[in-house]
Design a protein that fits this description.
The protein is of the alpha/beta class and 115 residues long. The protein folds into 2 domains: 51 residues; 54 residues, no CATH class. The chain has 4 helices and 6 strands; from the N terminus they run αβαβαβββαβ. The strands form 3 sheets. Strands 1-2 form a two-stranded parallel ribbon. The chain has a two-stranded parallel ribbon with strand order 3-6. Helix 3 packs parallel to helix 4. The two termini are 20 Å apart.
């Protein structure tokens, strides 16, 4: 979504996007490299590499890291990875709601469709 917004911005050359991923502290160098490659694969080829920044941060402390990072952003898009328990979808938690309300900028919450 953020990458689509970049391509439709009035002046795309003045728009920058940071793809932030907070990973498990047990990730090794190979896993971090793989994650960075996955994030880069989402970037359209016609977008300058200077406009897209990949930032990997080691967890724990997902909420505090997103909150800290939001202080220098114009918009945060959060991706919720929905899961099922006993065949039923789990709604966004109070933890997610609290995070969205504490961000220093506007937020948009998106989720993957349940299969």
């Amino acid at each position: 979504l953020a990458l689509r917004l970049l391509s439709t911005a009035p002046d795309p050359t003045s728009t920058n996007i940071t793809l932030l991923h907070i990973h498990d502290p047990r990730f090794n160098r190979h896993e971090r490299s793989w994650m960075e490659q996955q994030l880069m694969s989402w970037c359209p080829r016609n977008i300058s590499s200077q406009q897209i920044q990949i930032k990997l941060l080691q967890g724990p402390g997902i909420d505090s890291k997103i909150h800290w990072f939001s202080k220098n952003q114009d918009l945060v898009i959060l991706r919720s990875q929905r899961r099922r328990v006993a065949g039923l979808p789990i709604p966004a938690s109070d933890r997610t709601s609290n995070l969205v309300h504490q961000l220093a900028c506007p937020a948009l919450m998106i989720s993957d469709p349940l299969n």
